[in-house]
Amino acid sequence: MSHLLTIADLKELARRRVPTMFFDYADSGAWTEGTYRANEEDFADIKLRQRVLVDMTDRSLETTMIGEKVSMPVALAPTGLTGMQHADGEMLAAQAAEAAGVPFTLSTMSICSIEDVASVTTKPFWFQLYVMRDRDFVRNLIDRAKAANCSALVLTADLQILGQRHKDVRNGLSAPPKLTLANLFDMALRPRWCAAMLGTQRRTFRNIVGHAKGVGDLSSLSSWTAEQFDPKLSWDDVAWIKEHWGGKLIIKGILDEEDARMAAKTGADAIIVSNHGGRQLDGARSSISMLPRIVEAVDGRIEVHVDGGIRSGQDVLKAVALGAQGTYIGRPFLYGLGAMGREGVTLALEIIRKELDITMALCGKRRITDVDGSVLAR
Ligand SMILES: Cc1cc2nc3c(=O)[nH]c(=O)nc-3n(C[C@H](O)[C@H](O)[C@H](O)COP(=O)(O)O)c2cc1C
Q1: Collapsing DSSP states into helix, strand and coil, what is residue 208?
Q2: What are the sequence ranges of the domains in the chain?
Q3: Would the CA dihedral through 361, 367, 369, 374 be positive or negative?
């Protein structure tokens, strides 16, 4: 493990251990993948300000996200099919997040169900909601999240229509994978993944199958999404969702100042500046490049979080410096999970924590809550 020092190291190990179809599902963006690349690249253009001869003892990364204490401002983003990166992936990632003192967000499109994750955790996790045409099913999902003691609902606003990822089409993405010759050959090269997967019953979308009317087979994710996700979803729906949920609400997928102002008016607790990890509107700007404008637009009326392209603690520090109260990682924890299961998610979080701590110190700050634009080189 001593050679696994960066998120990129975990990515390379995951590439070897996870079947191509699922590794590609994580490591892809929509169409040309230009926004996916920009999310990462734009962090590199932001430079930090080196400070010296300041007391660096007793540092703390502790802060809050939507009023909840977090050991560092990094949550695990909701990701679909996480239980295909590694058997029982959502349960393992939630346990790793809980032990690390950071929030875990369970996707509607997870393999392990809300109840599965609740059964192996002791602290509340967050639940991400996709809104389907079948509103009874949506209300039922919200009720299940309440019953599982979830402490925040994350409403994803940027995926009512699916952006195309060419790799998923070419690979024939499905969960569980179809037993074609090509897939069998690919899986045969990944015995650890297969052994773990044979040891679990959780191989399809357990939030949905058995709960949504008439859904027995969801294996073709893209056609199911096209049929079931509600393209009419609008700002008016946020009000009834907020009311039915009755708890903390986070709106995810805001990339525009005007939308950010609208979100602030809904009375939600936070927004996530996000382009879905470059998986939806290819050609959109990177999340980090939009963050300062959105922070300015909402002017403190709503808490601002950000995701997309964070691959290191330096990236987290830059996001906080630009006004984010919290950040989320998607692919970094998925690579950890695919590489080494729960231990890999823990390692991904440790890598980011260590980088964040040292970077903060070298910028002359001892507390993450004191970090602001002054740590950036202009
Ligand atoms: C494989 C994968 C699946 C995703 N599934 C979901 C999902 O089900 N719901 C959601 O709101 N966002 C989903 N996202 C977007 C993430 O929540 C997050 O916005 C994105 O991963 C952040 O970018 P990063 O991966 O560069 O950290 C997914 C992202 C990836 C990579």
Answers
A1: coil
A2: 7-375
A3: negative
pLDDT number for residue 283:
98
Q: What is the pTM of this model?
A: 0.97
Domain at 7-375, CATH homologous superfamily: Aldolase class I (3.20.20.70)
The residues lining ligand 1, judged by C-beta closer than 6 Å to any ligand atom, are: 25-26, 39, 77-80, 107, 109, 128, 156, 252, 274, 276-277, 279, 307-310, 329-331, 334
Q: Which of 229, 331, 372 is nearest to 12 (CA)?
A: 331
Q: Are 307 and 330 in contact (CB under 8 A)?
A: yes
* CA 330 – ligand 1 centroid, Å: 5
Please, what are the averages of pLDDT over each run of 10 residues along the chain (378 residues)?
Answer: 92 98 98 98 98 96 98 98 98 98 98 98 98 94 98 97 93 90 95 97 91 70 80 96 98 98 98 98 98 98 98 98 98 98 98 98 98 97
Written as one string, the DSSP assignment of 146-178 is HHTT-SEEEEE-S-SSPPP-HHHHHHT--SSPP
State the pLDDT at residue 289. 98
As annotated, the active-site residues are 276
